[in-house]
Amino acid sequence: MGKSSKPGASEVTERIAVDFGAAVGVKKLRLLNVLRFKGSSMNGVLSVICVLPCKVSRTEDLVGLKRCLGSIAMQSSLPDLVLVPWFAEQAMRAALIAVFTEHEFTVPVEMPQAATSSMAAVAAGLEVLKEKVGKQQGAWLLFSEQAAIWHPHRVATYRHYLLRGGVIAAAGADVVSCVGAQYVQPTIPGEPLSSAADVNRLLESGGARKVSCFQSSKEELWQCCVRLSAVCDFCRVAPKSVIDHPHSDRALFNFLRTYRSAGGRTLNAAWWSHDQDSLDAGSWLYYFDWVDGLPNQLYGGLLGNASEPSTLIEERDRQLSSDILSRLTLQPGQRVDRNFVTELPLQTMSLRHNIELWLLNTWQATASKALTRTQVEEATGFVMQLLRKAFGGRLPPPEDVWRSTVVALFKAAAKEFELCVER
Question: Which of 56, 179, 238, 412 is geometrically suited to a Cys-Cys bond with 242, CB 3.0 to 4.6 A?
Fold first, then answer.
């Protein structure tokens, strides 16, 4: 006898949703999506959990979150859980809680203060995840920014590639992440979009472009679907200073590459087309309102406003720039260029960030956590090259001032990340 054709629970739920939708019309779609979420269950084979950290300080933040949740609700294959670690200014709390009430499929986790990084937000929600998921090896975290728009087949695409890659509940599976291939961003600032259909229209008009994450300079957390157990292990061994750093995802990616003795393997998820399971993701999975690294709504305000970046400079960077100035060698009667004095704190901040990024990109949970002198010399040489480039090829003399500054910053950052440097 052949296999039974009896549909599974998720298929039955989908059919109910379709039939009920035809009967009651568009206005009831939200109830249908809640029904579909309720019908979804983590079966221990492959569970996709959305992690959507959010901070709401103004109405625009709330609008962005609502459109993201709307796009999640319209997924052809729903996530098994939508975890939302959140923080809101007092004036926005009631409105945000109302959004969670409207989108009943969310699992909000309030944070006592705004998370300084995506990984800090994830760490804040881990206890809830452990409670709901346990130690499932088949559980995966799919990340998102709070104002993004998901293509309706985003979750389905990740499920497809994870299953096709042989990823099951087996604890020994070496695949630890799956990276989506293409996303969309606007080419010029404009009005925020509301849906995937808006994104397609913007693409057709030339107002947006597709970007492959394999062509971009670095991975982003929202491009990845990561095994939950690997994220839990990272949060267990990484010091708070690493988890709280705005670029903590750099450390996570390096951790994943060296995860388990054989090394972690990453699947490359492209997109589904008409000849693959009759699904078409339109060759993109994710859209967000950023133009050249700046939020769309802020782009116009920052253009031509050179004073704006100064608000990002910390006091320690200003003090360090003053120390550098006091140690530079000037010829009799020579004055330091005014533009140089103005830009130095920004260059100093950039210098510190580059050093921290280097450390996070190479961060590993090794037993000794020791950095060799060779590594320090390589990092110093790399950062010195960046400095020379920033100053047009030649550093204001003496160069030893810059080199000693780089080494001091390197050692300070290593200490902050609980790494030691060989003497």
Answer: 238
Distance CA 187, CA 167 (A): 36
Residues 6+ apart with CB under 8 A from 285: 150, 151, 153, 154, 157, 180, 181, 182, 183, 269, 271
How much helix, strand and coil, in percent to the nearest 5, is found in the chain? 50, 15, 35
Which is it for strands 175-180 and 265-269: parallel, antiparallel or unpaired? parallel
CB 58 within 8 A of CB 92: yes
Collapse the DSSP code of 129 into the 3-class scheme (helix H, G, I; strand E, B; otherwise coil) and give the result. helix
CA-based angle 210:212:216, to the nearest 5? 115
183 near 288, Cβ under 8 Å? Answer: yes
SS3 318: helix
Q: What are the tens digits of pLDDT across the range 128-140?
A: 888 887 766 678 9
pLDDT digit string, tens, across residues 272-309: 333 333 334 457 889 987 654 444 443 333 332 333 44
Smallest CA-to-CA distance from 227 within 249, 250, 256 is with 256
User: Residue 342: which pLDDT band, with cuts at 50, 70 and 90?
Assistant: confident
Answer yes or no: are the C-beta atoms of 52 and 81 closer than 8 Å. no
Per the CATH hierarchy, to which homologous superfamily does domain 40-299 belong?
Spore Coat Polysaccharide Biosynthesis Protein SpsA; Chain A (3.90.550.10)
Residues carrying CATH 3.90.550.10, the chain: 40-299
Angle in degrees, CA 100, 104, 109, rounded to 5: 50
CA distance 48 to 159: 8
The whole-number average pLDDT for the span 207-214 is 77
Which residue has tokens 């988890």?
243
Q: What pLDDT, on a 0 to 100 scale, did the predictor assign at position 262?
A: 46
For residue 398, is the peptide bond before it cis, meaning its omega torsion is within 30 degrees of 0? yes
End-to-end CA separation in angstroms for the chain: 73
Q: Which region among 42-56, 108-122, 289-303, 382-396 has the lowest average model confidence (pLDDT)?
A: 289-303
CA–CA gap between residue 305 and residue 153 (Å, rounded):
40
